[in-house]
Amino acid sequence: MVHGEVWTAKELFVYPNEYIYWTIQIVMYPFMTGLVAGAFVLSSLYHVFGVKQLKEIARFSLVFSFALLPVAMMPLLLHLQFPFRGIEVMMTPHFTSAIAAFGIVFTTYGMIVAAELWFVYRKYFVETALELRQLTGRSVTQQFRYVLYSVLTLGAWDISEQALEKDERAVKLLAGTGIPVACFLHGYAGFIFGSVKANALWMTPLMPVIFICSAVVSGIALCIVTYIATMEIRKALHAWKQKSSPALPLLDEMKSAELQVVTMTARYLVMFLILAITLELLDLIFRGYTAVKSWDILRSVIYGKDFVNIFVIQYGMGNLIPFFLLLLPRLTIRRAVAGTLLVLLGVFMMRWNVVIGGQAFSSSFSGFMHYHLPIWPDNLETFKEGLFGALLVAITPFVLFWGLNKVIPVFPVKDTH
Amino acid sequence: MISRRNFCKKAMLFIGGVAVPVAGLEIFNPQRLLAEKQDPAKVRWVFLVDTRKCVGCGFCVRACKLENEIPYDANVSRTWVERYVVTRDGKVHTDSPKAARDGFTTKAIDQAGKGMLEIRDEDITKAFFVPKLCNQCENPPCVQVCPVGATYQTPDGVVLVDRTWCIGCGYCVMGCPYGVRFFHPVYKAAEKCNFCYHRISKGMKSACVEACPFGARTIGNIKDPEDPVTRIIMTERVAVLKEEYGTKPQVFYLGMSKEVK
Ligand code: SF4
Ligand code: SF4
């Protein structure tokens, strides 16, 4: 079988070599990259613009954005026919290609996030290492942690007032430079599609901007859900521990902080959501109004074949419903969860409709192609480009986040001691 | 104090000293040397398809598959032939079953998932065949988008793929407006027609040109005014496919019809 033949169904006249070549992994790719960029923008709102209410979620989203980083590359690697040659994009970049430029922007961005994280946590590294140094007769784990944290300090042991102040200034600077780079990063992901002139659906200069807006939306949404989820889990764990040792303090302040943070963040989410929808609708209206040659086939895809995906799931369930859920007064945690999950669904469907929808019609303009997502993998290819490959990509950041949280605690640890 | 005479002497020496290596840069410009040695602009391969002569036998498709080792039964092909049937109601029906490897064996139109469509002879107003292949564009988007430079253009205008360098991202497949690219079922790398570069660079004709019994396909050098292909392109009314994309295709068609997409 030829690559793509397993999951492509053709209808009417399609060129013999045309198949759905960009599958779910290429849907996951801008989706995950968007989450990275969005989470970072959220954290910068606090560090750069000093939105005080976001302090707690800012730290959280910074770590989360770091955990998401490696995952932005994963779908691309899973998609490549020669994953081991993937590094060649960095070694022999071909600068007229948007994908090659993406690699460079991505690395720059990764270094910025890593540096910012280091400055934020340097005090913690030093304190922990000093604490461990004082212990006599360290166990193996303690010795390991001691070495780890000593290395993480990178030899900068100074935690005097002035030094910490300098750290803070560095964080601010990095967060500031990080915002344009994050936007650029995702603008580039949009550019990868927007610059493909052979594809009538993708070919629009609005593509990068639309991608940036929905990226911020999805990143904020994911941070809210994960934030709520981790808080709930921590509360449950705490209550469970309390049962065995009633001496532990209650967790009242934890609960009240949560809703306030969520409400505040949700407001930013809605703001970016409005921007994203406006741009998408503008694009749609513009295409219909100018109705160039490709509009005939685009219309049949947008209003016919993909109607449910675009208007019911993406705009209806993914944009309209959460819009009300999040904006109606007296937001509750439960409603926030429902709203943000729907927002995530909406952004995912937007990526899906762009990537898969863009390949739904043939370049011959007289035939259609459908993508049947491989569910049960029966070989490596159907695994990589099917449901399980996508799930693998979706789960990884949470595993990484959990691991990172072991080294750099995202939440204040006082009460768990 | 430095005397005027001394200053002049030293200044001349300095300028002379600088001028020698600068002149060296000029003299040893390797690109110019190469350009003078073998003028890359002497050859530009072009293709001419006479759609009035094509009968849809598919000999070219078969020859290409065998010559270029594209698995015979795989549903991809470097070149293919399309059949157009225009009916009285103005509808255009197109197909290319198995890339027309075996020619067109039935009158019914293959509509893929929608099944076969029978058209009565008296409803047909016109019908014809159009061979397709890579256009070896002058401004190839496939070369532009390849992130590692595995797709590149030779000085004589043919676009090639380096199988050992391609990472298999599929960006070039997406970038080509003509849908000629695919992944090789065995080598897994991006694949497409290359005008049989291994043959034409040795002075032979490409496999499909050789195989066409009706002379519908010809290949030539547009830089050579004596070339019969060049003469036709220069003097007759030829057309190219999808000109609006600005790719400047170098496959020219004689007797093109507006239905061709
Ligand atoms: S026809 Fe397609 S594959 Fe051939 S050179 Fe042009 S863009 Fe590239
Ligand atoms: S599939 Fe290969 S030739 Fe095509 S763009 Fe990707 S790396 Fe380049």
Automatic annotation (TrEMBL), chain A:
Annotated transmembrane regions: 20-45, 57-78, 98-121, 173-194, 206-229, 268-287, 307-328, 340-361, 386-404
Highest taxon of the lineage: Bacteria
Membrane topology type: Multi-pass membrane protein
A Pfam short name: NrfD
Stored InterPro entries: Electron_transfer_protein, NrfD-like
UniProt GO cellular component terms: plasma membrane
Localization annotation: Cell membrane
Record carries keyword Transmembrane: yes
Coiled coil: none
UniProt keyword annotations, A-Z: Cell membrane, Membrane, Transmembrane, Transmembrane helix
Major location (coarse): membrane
Entries under PANTHER family matching the protein: PROTEIN NRFD
Family: Belongs to the NrfD family.
Name the UniProt record assigns to this protein: Polysulfide reductase NrfD
Organism encoding this protein: Geoanaerobacter pelophilus
UniProtKB/TrEMBL annotation, chain B:
Pfam families linked: Fer4_11, Fer4_2
PROSITE patterns, sorted: 4FE4S_FER_1, 4FE4S_FER_2
Keyword tags: 4Fe-4S, Iron, Iron-sulfur, Metal-binding
Superkingdom, taxonomy of origin: Bacteria
GO MF entry, a single one: metal ion binding
Signal peptide: none
4Fe-4S ferredoxin-type domain boundaries: 45-75, 125-156, 157-186
Listed name of the protein: 4Fe-4S dicluster domain-containing protein
